[in-house]
């Protein structure tokens, strides 16, 4: 049995399990929002360090500036987030962990929901996301099959439905038209050229998708 067939059988099994009646409660009140399996959670960007560098070269909307994204899953009265974390790699963990970390850093958390027309793809996306767990974080942001970064993880999860699309990456500061100094030094330390123009994706690009609509911001305790 070849690898492609094995992978297809695993995804089909996970999708079936996900849809079993009573297997998972797909909607749950959390903080001030009613969260659903398949919602995407975006972490607000800061103005400095890696967070600021990501946002400077990718921000598309004045009121949306994000540096991280994950997929929510409601199961057994708990909300989990599936994401590619710089500290932990690709993991499924309670949303409380991300909320606590974001509150400590003073970061916004925004929840976006798929359009009704695209929600049918959620079970397969969750199954695919779970099949990607355990991979390390991709610090080069150059696409490969052995490591993942946050928006890459989400795009791959929904790839079968063509929900999001890869675009040429840019690391140029829009104010200067030149490679952002942070990124120039970042890739110099990695011993590689800045991957300008190579295919990729980013949280701000995903948030701007016409297939998503903002549900609201989580109210975090100070």
UniProtKB/TrEMBL annotation:
InterPro entries: Papain-like_cys_pep_sf, Peptidase_C92. Pfam families: Peptidase_C92 (PF05708). This is Permuted papain-like amidase YaeF/Yiix C92 family enzyme. It comes from Algoriphagus aquaeductus.
């Amino acid at each position: 049995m070849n690898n492609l067939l094995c992978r297809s059988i695993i995804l089909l099994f996970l999708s079936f399990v996900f849809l079993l009646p009573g297997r998972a409660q797909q909607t749950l009140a959390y903080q001030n929002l009613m969260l659903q399996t398949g919602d995407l959670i975006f972490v607000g960007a800061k103005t400095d360090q890696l967070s600021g560098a990501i946002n400077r070269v990718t921000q598309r909307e004045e009121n949306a500036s994000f540096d991280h994204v994950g997929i929510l899953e409601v199961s057994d009265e708990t909300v989990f987030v599936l994401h590619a974390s710089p500290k932990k790699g690709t993991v499924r963990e309670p949303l409380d962990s991300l909320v606590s970390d974001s509150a400590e850093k003073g970061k916004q958390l925004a929840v976006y929901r798929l359009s009704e027309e695209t929600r049918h793809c959620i079970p397969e996306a969750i199954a695919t996301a779970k099949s990607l767990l355990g991979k390390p974080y991709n610090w080069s942001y150059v696409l490969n099959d052995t490591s993942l970064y946050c928006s890459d993880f989400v795009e791959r999860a929904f790839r079968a439905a063509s929900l999001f699309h890869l675009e040429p990456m840019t690391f140029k500061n829009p104010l200067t038209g030149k490679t952002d100094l942070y990124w120039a030094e970042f890739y110099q330390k990695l011993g590689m050229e800045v991957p300008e123009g190579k295919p990729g994706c980013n949280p701000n690009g995903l948030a701007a998708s016409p297939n998503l609509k903002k549900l609201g911001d989580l109210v975090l305790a100070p």
